[in-house]
Amino acid sequence: xxxxxxxxxxxxxxxxxxxxxxxxxxxxxxxxxxxxxxxxxxxxxxxxxxxxxxxxxxxxxxxxxxxxxxxxxxxxxxxxxxxxxxxxxxxxxxxxxxxxxxxxxxxxxxxxxxxxxxxxxxxx
Length: 124
Prior knowledge:
Helix content is 35%, strand content 8%. It has 6 helices and 4 strands, in the order H-E-E-H-H-E-E-H-H-H. The radius of gyration is 16 Å and the shape is globular. It is mainly alpha-helical. The strands form 2 sheets. The chain has a two-stranded antiparallel sheet. A two-stranded antiparallel sheet has the order 3-4.
């Protein structure tokens, strides 16, 4: 958190992304080159694997959003568009994440996007 706070496009105390297009644009590439803070640096294993976020659960398979079919640049190297489309994953077909986030925001009165490092930092 200390390394990321200075350039975080939002409130580094709460870890919540600021409103506005400029903040959203900066957030898109923010911390892309940072290692995941949930990985144990000695073993490389995830320390919260059983309760990992949706982003971690679907990393790798192609996932559709309003922007189209998103594919991890490390996966499907050399695959055709048709081959990639056959691997499409629907990560939350019952839309459970939206309901869980709404309940969490209601309970905590905290709203907005953030990153895993700030979530973990706020738990400590």
